[in-house]
Amino acid sequence: MIMNNGLLQKTEWKAEEHLPVIVSHYCVKKNETVRIKVKIGKQINHPGKNEHNIAWIDIYFSAQDVMFPQLIGRVEFTSNGELAQDTDTGAVHSCDDAIFKFKPDKSGVIYATSYCDTHGFCQSSAELKVV
């Protein structure tokens, strides 16, 4: 979901971070496997509570000279400490990071999009050079 209509957050909040951070080698050989780690926030952890959590992260690749970006993958986070009798008392909280792999044959742009149930959609991007 690559959007440019004002719905996307592209800046951080003061006490917590929401932008997906793309961690990868940004120059690879043609058809070499690219390993991308996406984590939410660079220096400050996202709260990860039942009432304030990251629902999912999507990765898209927009190759040069290709009209539409391709969805590489999606990770959904479904355990945020919820229990029926109370919030945030569960034994498991999802971690807001994921690893994706793909083999590009052209240079392009990697887009990471995420959704926080409190602050909405966030997106970041990084150039990928294929040599």
Word description of this protein:
The chain is mostly beta strands. The protein has one domain (13-130): Immunoglobulin-like. It is built from no helices and nine strands. Strands 1, 3, 5, 6, 8 and 9 form a six-stranded mixed β-sheet that branches. Strands 2-4-7 form a three-stranded antiparallel β-sheet, with no helix packed on it. β8 and β9 (120-130) form a beta hairpin. 24% of the residues are buried. The mean pLDDT is 83.
What order do the helices and strands come in, and which of them pair?
Blueprint: E1 8-9, E2 20-23, E3 27-28, E4 34-40, E5 54-63, E6 70-76, E7 97-102, E8 108-116, E9 120-130
Features:
131 residues, Immunoglobulin-like, six-stranded mixed beta sheet, mainly beta, three-stranded antiparallel beta sheet, 0% helix
State the order of secondary-structure elements, H for helix, E for strand: EEEEEEEEE
In percent, how helical is the residue content?
under 10%
Terminal Cα separation, in Å?
27 Å
The oligomeric state is: single chain
Q: So, the CATH homologous superfamily? A: SOR catalytic domain
Write down the CATH topology: Immunoglobulin-like
Largest sheet: 6 strands, mixed
State the CATH class.
Mainly Beta
* Whole-number tally of structural domains: 1
Overall pLDDT score: 83
* Rg value: 16 Å
Could you give a short description of this structure?
This protein is mainly beta and 131 residues long. 0% of the residues lie in helices and 44% in strands.
